[in-house]
Structure formats: C-alpha cells, structure tokens
Amino acid sequence: MTAAALSPSRSGLGRGADRRPAYGDAGHAALTPRQAEYRVFANVTHRLSESQAALDAGETGANARLAAAAHDNLRLWLALAADLSVAENGLPDALRAGLLSLAAFVERETPRLVRREITSAALVEINASVMKGLRGQVEGA
C-alpha cells in the first residue's frame, strides 16, 4: 500500500490526500473518500483474517504474511491517528477521541500479534466496526 492509501481523507475519517494513486486504475476513480477508506480497511482486515487462518492451519509462510498484514494495519491506524490529531479534522470530538483510543490499542497490540502472543481477532473486530461505521456513512451519504 502507498502512503496515499493509508492517509484518511477530509470527507471520510480524516483530512488526508487523494486516493487515486493508491488504487491505480480508473475503476476506482469514482470512489468517494469514505468508500476508498472502507476498501483500505477491508483489504487489510481480509489479509489479517486470511493470514491468521493460514497460520492456524500451519501453512508455510503464514507467519510472514500475518506480520506484513499487521504492519500495514498499524500503518493505517497510525496515519488515521495523525489525521485525527489535527485540529482542523471535522469529526466530532467524542468520535475522534474514540478512534484515537482504538489507534492506541492497535499500536499496543500489534507487536503482541507479531510475537504470536495473541491472535488477530481483536484487531479484525475493531476494523470491522470501523468498516460498519464507514459503510453506514457511505450508504447514508
């Protein structure tokens, strides 16, 4: 993923950059910022789930895939946290605080996942909740 893919946008969760370079084809150019954010979350969440299942099944290379997915998930949350920390971010204070709390949790738990002290279940659940919120925002927009 590129930095643009991980940088939330003004009309979605945050205020970041244009998404077109992250997806690379004209089919994605019609996505709203919230739809693009949903896709980024969906992609990394799928990779976390899939690599955890592969690891649980004892597949070769699954640990490396899980570590890569965990790293990308952390990058996503750190970019989101940076954007949420900007005063110009348009989200309500309570929502911003809640998302920043989740970002701190993801930052704290990701090394534990990579060390295989925990599974990806909690991180997947958090991402799924954010995706549900984005989907509601997209459908209601």
The largest sheet, given as strand count, sense and whether it forms a barrel, is:
none
Uncertain stretches: 1-11, 14-23
Number of domains: 1
Helix run count: 6
Extended strand count: 0
Distance between the termini: 27 Å
Strand content: under 5%
Shape: globular
Radius of gyration: 15 Å
Oligomer: single chain
Organism: Albimonas pacifica
Protein name: Flagellar protein FlaF
Region (Disordered): 1-28
InterPro entries: FlaF
List the helices and strands and how they pair.
Layout: H1 3-6, H2 20-23, H3 33-56, H4 62-84, H5 93-114, H6 121-140
Helix pairs in contact: 3-4, 3-6, 4-5
Organism: Albimonas pacifica
Keywords: Cell projection, Cilium, Flagellum
Protein name: Flagellar protein FlaF
